[in-house]
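Q: What would this chain look like folded?
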Amino acid sequence: MFLLIKLEESVVHLASLEEVEIQAIENACRACDWNLSKVAGILKIGRTTLWRKLKAYNLEPKSGVVE
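A: My prediction, written as structure tokens:
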């Protein structure tokens, strides 16, 4: 589910909190070459929390990337 706001004849898509979280995790994982300790540090969450979110959102490294 997402929010729509009508601003002067145009509609702007605002991402859901879940979409924003997924994007932040994906970006951090790519930036850190999937080093989960670094990713957790950047996102300021525990490694276990990060692991749970990766599993919940079915996020995993693309082939050729070492965890």
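The longest helix spans residues 17-31.
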